Each structure stands twice: as structure tokens, then as C-alpha cells.
Amino acid sequence: MTHSSTLVLTVRHPADSIAVLAAAGEIDVDSAPALRTRALELIRQGSPHLVLDLASVEFCDSSGLNAMISLLRFAKDRYGSLSLAAPQPHLTRLLDVTGVGALIPVLPTADEAVNGLHSASPRPDSSA
């Protein structure tokens, strides 16, 4: 578990190449680097498919959105993916208004995101 002053991160591994990173609290200029660092570690350690569970995120600013976009690029460069799960209504609006929700799949629950990854068959040679 990783703690910052405004953010708590927990991880579970539902499958070999999949990690679910649950964030609780606030993703802001102070905590976004911790989120990004932990997520990059998970991808580098063999979980290129990352689900970011946002169910307990109370606040997210542009630093958090930038971290998400950075994670998407990093995961795709490693033939992986990033999915966002269970954002609160305020975060869903932010994702929609900024267009980030059009770049990154947003699913109602982390389990649905994981199930979607299980049913997908990504190939390294497919263009993303």
C-alpha cells in the first residue's frame, strides 16, 4: 500500500498480466506523482494491462488527468492498456469535458474492466 498526504493506493492482481490499482482520496498536484510512479512500477513488473479503480476518488485535478494520459501511453508502448473503473459522477464529468474519457475506456466497475481484458485478445502486432 502506498500513501501520500491525500491518496491511498492498493493493488490486486486478478491475472498474470493485469493489475488493479485502487486509488482512494484526492489525485492532485501533490499526489499524482505517487499514482504515476506506482502504476509505472506495476506495468514494468509485468502487468501491462492496468485498471485504475477510481471508486473512492473524491477529487481529481489536471495533474491526475495528465498522469492518466501518461500511463495510457506507457502501457500502450508495452502492448498493454489502461482502463478507468467506477469514477464518481464529478470525475466522470471531468473525463467527458476534457475528452480523456474518449481516450481511455471507462467502465462501471473494476470487475467489468478486468472481465473485458480477459475476453480481449491483444496482439503485439495490432496497431493501437
TrEMBL record:
It holds the Pfam family STAS_2. Signal peptide: none annotated. Gene3D superfamilies: STAS domain. Residues 16-117 form the STAS domain. PANTHER family: ANTI-SIGMA FACTOR ANTAGONIST TM_1081-RELATED, ANTI-SIGMA FACTOR ANTAGONIST TM_1081-RELATED-RELATED. NCBIfam families: ant_ant_sig. Belongs to the anti-sigma-factor antagonist family. This is Anti-sigma factor antagonist. It comes from Streptomyces atroolivaceus.
